[in-house]
Amino acid sequence: MLNIPELLEIVLISVDDMKTVLLAQRVNKNWYTTIGQSRSLQETLFFRLPEDALHSDRNANRSLRCNTLLLGTPQKHHSGAPLYPLRIPPGGTNNDVYPVYSSAVRMYLLDKKVKPFGDAKQPFLTVPLPSFPDESWGIECPLIFGAHSMATQFPYVNKTLAEFERGVRNQMMLGHVHRALRRRSVKSPLQNCNTLDGIPTEGSWGPAANPADFDAVKAAGFKAVRIPVTWTDHFEADGKTVNATWLQRVSDVVDYALTRNMYAIVNVHHDSWNEFDLTATSDYTSFETLFYSLWLQIGAKLACKSSLLAFEPINEPTGSTAAQFTELNKLNTIFLQALRDSGGFNAKRVVTLVGPGEDSVKTSQTFVRPANITNPWAIQFHYYSPYDLIFGAWGKTTWGSDADKAALDADFAAFRGNFSDVPVVIGEWEANNLIETSARWKYFDYLQTTAKKYSFTTFLWDNSATELDRSIEKFRDPVAIDILMAAVKGKPNAVPDSTTDGSITQVSSAFLYHKVGTNITDQTLTYNFNGNTLSSVNGPDGKALRKGIDYTATGSSVTYKASLLSKYITASSAAGPIASFSLKFSKGAALTAQVVQWDVATLASNSSSATTAAGGDLAIPITWKGINRPAAVQAVLPDGTCLVDTWTVYLPALQQCRTTYGNQWEFDNGHVIIKSGAIQAAIAAAQPVKFTFEFYPRLPCNNATYTLIV
After folding, report:
1. Which Pfam families does the entry link to (predicted)?
2. DSSP 8-class letter at 476
3. Which of 34, 104, 290, 551 has the largest count of CB atoms under 10 Å?
4. Pick the CATH number of 161-494 from 3.40.50.300, 3.20.20.80, 3.30.70.580, 3.40.640.10
5. How does pLDDT run across 246-279, given as a tens digit for each residue?
6. Are 243 and 234 in contact (CB under 8 A)?
7. Which CATH class is domain 511-598?
């Protein structure tokens, strides 16, 4: 029989320099009963007593459960909040959970030099336990003494919003469909990417989330992930009860983040244009009931997750009328009520509230702070601007002019001005990897630097085809990620120079291009050092190149000598990426200059009948000869008229009559693809259409043409 003391004392015995922590309960002055062990004092311990300890008088509600113990190192420990014990079930067994009615839980730390069964030092943490009636029910999150094995559970530590915001200052969105899904077919190669927000289920749009994804993201420096979840196809037959297996899967994926000490945000995602489409009805009664029920169930399932977890009510909600905006504000209120009612830690959990479409302008104009809010909260918006750059539209492949930067700064300044006293989260942003590489690096640097200027927290959108290659758990553009991480820390990045004028031949300092069949000469690339100095230039083998022999550096320029380049390429070398040099600077991220041998890519054929391809996409085999992606695709009729978007004739020369990725064209490893929408437009025009596939570098001669004959 285990006596229930007025003070339950748990002793932590440090072993192996804190790598292992033994847990014991004091029996008398000099002896302790071993309970279990944990890997680190950083964990909250969710452990079970030995079988012989479970001989309490159940009829008298004598039991073996105490409040959550929030552990930390003696130098930096946490204090915890009291929780409600469960009522003892009638006729319970040794596998059941029982509460302990002690007045306090006291933690001791024994140094490894102290005898394991000697006297403890002074306690470094004491957590008082309140008294509660035996009938107390509800979701609560205690430290549990059960019958068999030990497991771990994370602590809930009250956080101010500022603490949460600091914690997620580096973060990433992991595993989702491309932002432009609703604008194009899900067959796009950018959509073999999704996890929990897939329709109808996880895996429908790409690989399921796995722990290795989170390992790779954390190793890159990210501190948080936003985990969108679509619930529409996971209700039971009654249309309101969420499938228990799905709830458990969501919980498991959340734990992938939390067990790695990463922050996470969970939301209701593509349901915004399914079950909760505000534009589909004006009778919101059943709509509100289901929304409350859904969040009540989500909240209950995740109620005991640690304070690393935050919630977001709904992703990019629809709406364009005053009535719809009013209803969205009401949904924010319903969401908060459901969280309070779901119990656990949810009444004090961080939430990020939203406005229409999570658009910065609409949110500024229509968002109303809920009157019932007691949770620490932030406002969230998404940033995909300029549209043509982000979504591969109309030949826009460059960025970084003074006007480009001013537009981004003005957008952020306006939003901060409207929410001057509220933490702000950019829940999604991205610059796709179709655009010119230097432009992408400059965008990453300037967006994150400007976000830091306005104290915005940012989440990078990843569709598995842009950032993390989940087949090998490596980032496709590690330089962009390094630039982002340096900018988060406030370090100035050197960035490569590149053309920002869409009317002239475009150049880039991210590459050392050499045309097949031409002489090898010195090449000079220019950079914006941003106050940095060049520390070294290293070769593909990681060894430093010889300044003055292999390269020279003057001002903001680096000249790569012909003698150096000749070690890697000849006039007749096969086309494609050859080697990469690394430039290291006094601060910020290292850059690369990739040597690329190029020639004009060739198509397997140059024409076909539009009617033959009608009803589907047209995949044209291609032999790549350099950078294996198109830069832009132009589509014109015989008289020079644009096939689509005729207004683009007023854009700069390299954007005129250019089409949009995903709508009119795509590509894969061995094909360029004319989309069915473009084929139908050609048939409707009743004229031949010439498609010009332009490649990098964007020079007048570097393209291949294909004609759809009508």
Report:
1. CBM_X2, Cellulase
2. S
3. 551
4. 3.20.20.80
5. 999 999 999 999 999 999 999 999 989 888 999 9
6. yes
7. mainly beta
